[in-house]
C-alpha cells in the first residue's frame, strides 16, 4: 500500500465523519425550531418528512453525476453545498422558508451520502481491501459528536452560533480531505452511461436487503426509549440506554466489520449479522424488564452494524453497472426504511405492543437472510 492509498482511505473516512456530524447536529435543532416557529409536533413532523423527501429526490441526481463524472467530483459539489446547510435553516424566518431549507439540507446530505459511498467503493477497489464498514463507523462517531455537543452548544450560545461552529468544523474537514480524495473520473473516451435507473433487478434486491436492515435501526432509534419507559416502567435515564446500547455496539462492530468480512466473506458475515440481529430483537421483544431489553438492543446493534455497509459495497460492485447508479438505488431504498419506520411503527403501536413489533422486526430480517447470497459482489478482492 502506498501513501496515496492511505491518504485516500483517511480522506473518505473524514467525509463520513463530517456527514455524520451534520446529521447528528440536526437532531437537537428540531425542538429549537419548534419553539422558534411556534409549531406543533405534527407541523414539525412535516418538516422532518421534507428532509427525507429532499434526500430521496436528490440521491438519483448525484448517482448520475458519479456515473458521468466520478465520485470525487460529485462529493466535492455535495460536501461544499452541505457544509453551511445548518445555517440556512437557522436564519430562515418562517415555517415555509425553514421547510424549504430543511428540504435542501436533506437533498445535499443525501447527495453527499451517495457520492462518498461511491468513493469508498472506489478506494476499496484500488486497495483491494474492504473499508466500507469502518467508514460507516466514522459516520457513527460523527453522529455521536454532533448529537452529543449540539444540545449543549445551543443551550449555551444559541442556535445560530451552534450552526456556525458546526459549519467551521465541517469546512476544516473538507479543506483537509477533499484534495486527498481518490480521483475516479471516467476516461474521456469511456462510454457515458444512460441517465436512468438500472433495469437489472439486482440493485433493487440489494436495496431490499438494505431497507429491511435499516427499519429495525430506525425502530430502535425512535421507539426503544418509549418501549422501556411506557411498557416496562423504566425511568427516563434508564430508557435512554436502549438506543445508546445499540449505537455503542454498532459503532464498535463497524470498526471490526472490515476484518470480519475479509476473513469470512461478505455472504457469511451478512448471514451471521442477520442471525445475531434477529436474536437481539427477539430478546428485546420478549423481555419483561429493562435489563434484558437493553441487552437485546445491544445484541441487535452488533448484528445490524455491518448489514448496510455490506449492501453498499455489493451495490457499488454490481458487474456492468456504474457504481453511482447502483448506490443511488440502494441508498434510496435503505434510507426510506429509516424515514418510513417511525410513523408506521407509531401507527402500529396504537394497536400492538412495542414488544410484539420488535418480535415482528426480528422476523423481517428473514428477508436479508434469504437474499444474502446476492452480497457476493461485495467480495471484489476475491474475484
Automatic annotation (TrEMBL):
Gene3D superfamilies: MFS general substrate transporter like domains (1.20.1250.20)
Subcellular localization, as worded in the UniProt entry: Membrane
Single GO MF annotation: transmembrane transporter activity
A matching Pfam family: MFS_1
The entry's keywords: Membrane, Transmembrane, Transmembrane helix
Recorded topology in the membrane: Multi-pass membrane protein
GO cellular component, one term: membrane
Main location: membrane
TM stretches of this protein: 12-30, 42-62, 74-91, 97-116, 137-158, 164-182, 202-228, 234-256, 268-287, 293-315, 327-349, 355-375
Protein's UniProt name: MFS transporter
Species the sequence originates in: Paracoccus liaowanqingii
